[in-house]
TrEMBL record:
Keyword annotations: Signal, Sugar transport, Transport
PROSITE patterns named in the record: PROKAR_LIPOPROTEIN
Keyword Transport: yes
Signal peptide start and end residues: 1-23
Annotated protein name in UniProt: Multiple sugar transport system substrate-binding protein
Keyword set includes Iron: no
Length: 456
């Protein structure tokens, strides 16, 4: 659900962008020829509106092709990379790229559609696969479990936590290096911040443009709940955990009076409130700090991210690549080589070329993409630390908590469910007489209808 922001990289002018590096979406264009050469189309090449990342992509393709002269990479710069309005139609028609981009929420549907190639026999060629977080690789496995065959490769993810103002924590007499780790502690700290006066809001939350349902889901996960049954056919949130989410917010809004009068908030609203210096806490992920820093000139020293309160689980989102079922074995292996080079090797590629990112004044030090565990994670963290241009200590509690938390993806039919969740979230934040249980029941009925229709 997290909204994507355009890159803020500024490169020197004069770089010529090769049209040959861009191709329209069309699979099956280049199996291995008699001389062993192979061509692949790859989705999600940065568009022309993102000059910096696009230039880096083109440079990386050139370097990769020099190392692998038998492989030609043709980038597909369709934007957005994964358009929900057209994705399923393209999938069904077989018009996906040879190596096509997906959100995590697409994984299970693509596998079930039969339109993706089974790449299990090539798994040993994937760089650091054993150290990629199992919860992420399972998204691209048959049945979503570790025992299933592999159909895709994750390349990045984000995990929600608690963004907070170190400045307001200090003013309120709270330890800015010890964010709350339970919802009760969030409430206590929000009360302390709101008591500062001057219009300071202790805690704020979303309730519009599908962001309310998104945060309901995240907060439900953090309490040990789940949105749908294991088969994805029925709502499962109308229980003590779901009720606790709504009751807590209603209490914070109308009993504690720590959430401010303005409601109906959506994505950018909380970022703007944090940038104003008037908001203490909100649920979000580390990259929102970059947006606040870049767009509103707020120092990274003033903000930090702690773990998702409750620490039972957190909502993750992310993306990866899958392979068209029409691909030849040579195309699959070439695609894996490209993904290894561009997305899975610390020190190179779009995300992990830390010297280049630092030189181009891209943020270095964010705990995203959070792909790896074990030795690979440790080595990447050490490499990143050498070029960090932000205070990495401000993410320490967030990073420390993640390994022990369940990482849960968004539910099926996420956007439709979120739209209904907005209604419940808005009601508990605007109506002092709202009945959380009735709101939950109404939400459940709407969710069951959405899920039933999706099965037809």
């Amino acid at each position: 659900m997290r909204l994507r922001t355009a890159s803020r990289v500024a490169l020197a002018t004069g770089l010529v962008l090769s049209a040959a590096a861009c191709a329209s979406s069309n699979s099956g264009s280049g199996g291995a020829s008699a001389d062993g050469k192979v061509s692949i189309t790859v989705g999600c090449m940065p568009p022309t509106t993102q000059a910096g990342p696009r230039a880096n992509w083109i440079a990386d393709v050139a370097a990769f092709e020099k190392l692998n002269p038998n492989i030609t990479v043709k980038g597909d710069d369709s934007n957005p990379c994964d358009d929900p309005a057209t994705f399923n139609a393209k999938l069904a028609s077989g018009k996906m790229d040879d190596v096509f981009y997906t959100y995590f929420t697409d994984g299970a549907n693509v596998v079930a559609s039969g339109q993706a190639a089974d790449i299990q026999q090539y798994a040993s060629q994937i760089h650091g696969l054993s150290d990629i977080q199992p919860a992420l690789t399972n998204i691209y496995k048959q049945g979503g479990t570790a025992s299933g065959d592999l159909y895709g490769i994750p390349k990045g993810n984000y995990s929600l936590g608690l963004v907070y103002s170190k400045t307001l924590f200090q003013k309120a007499g709270l330890d800015p290096n010890k964010p709350p780790t339970t919802w009760d502690e969030v409430e206590a700290d929000a009360i302390a911040i709101s008591k500062l006066g001057n219009g300071d809001v202790g805690y704020a939350d979303y309730s519009a443009a599908n962001t309310g349902g998104w945060h309901f889901t995240a907060e439900l996960y953090s309490r040990g709940g789940t949105m749908v049954t294991p088969d994805g056919k029925s709502a499962a949130f109308d229980d003590a955990n779901g009720l606790a989410v709504l009751q807590f917010l209603h209490k914070m809004r109308f009993t504690d009076n720590v959430m401010g009068a303005k409601q109906g908030l959506q994505y950018n609203d909380l970022l703007q409130m944090m940038a104003s210096g008037k908001l203490g806490m909100y649920v979000g992920d580390p990259v929102t700090l970059t947006t606040i820093h870049d767009q509103y000139n707020v120092s990274y020293d003033d903000m930090a991210v702690g773990p998702m309160p409750g620490q039972a689980a957190t909502l993750v989102g992310g993306d990866g690549y899958m392979f068209n079922k029409k691909d030849t074995p040579a195309q699959i292996q070439a695609g894996i080589k490209w993904i290894n080079y561009e997305f899975l090797t610390s020190g190179q590629g779009l995300n992990f070329n830390y010297p280049r990112r630092a030189e181009q004044k891209e943020p270095v030090g964010l705990p995203e993409p959070d792909l790896w565990t074990g030795a690979t994670a440790a080595a990447d963290a050490a490499a990143m630390a050498k070029y960090a241009n932000m205070p990495v200590a401000n993410f320490a509690t967030y990073v420390a908590a993640l390994p022990s938390m369940k990482l849960l993806v968004e539910p099926p039919q996420a956007q439709a469910l979120y739209a209904q969740g907005d209604k419940a979230m808005d009601a508990v934040l605007t109506d002092p007489n709202a009945d959380p249980q009735k709101l939950l029941d109404t939400f459940k009925a709407a969710a069951n209808s959405i899920l039933a229709n999706a099965q037809q």
